[in-house]
Description:
Helix content: 10-25%
Number of helices: 2
Amino acid sequence: MFKQKLLKTAALTVAVICMFLLVACDDDPSNDPTQTGAETENGPADPVSSAENTTEPSVTPPEPQSSVIAKINGGADEVGIYSIVVRLTDEAADKGTIEMVYYGSKGSPQENSIVNTFRIEYEKESAGTFEIQTFYDGEIYQNQHHKDEVKVVNTFGATLRAGKVIISYTPDGGETQEIFSADAEYFYAD
């Protein structure tokens, strides 16, 4: 039991460090290309995968499917997606839910199966800031208080990679709509 808790604590610590590194990279204006109205940037390059991945995949970026997305950032290597950053625009409702559903990597036994879910629930406060709660595979992951914007990072541990992500958005009291989907190749570092 103690060993399990220690391993979970270590994994969470690594995830938090990765999250801070991704957020720091995300705010770098030199990494801010614009594509068809929605900004998309690649996550940090994995030194091993960048050296091994010498051919660039020919992937057409997915079209933005909603004006509530300000940015979708992420990182992937030859094994699959390891991180996603979602940032909403001011057009998003004052209260809502974002759900990221991840499917297994291509060619793996989990290719058409859900390997992870990440849920974000947010609400705008009277001061204009946001309260944000996240859930990792249905369990409470992190609470963020008085944030200036809805911007959330989901980073996987070394043992989990996904081949595809589908992101849905539900405004409070509204209907769920798919706002983004992409394969791991979309997030490969240049």
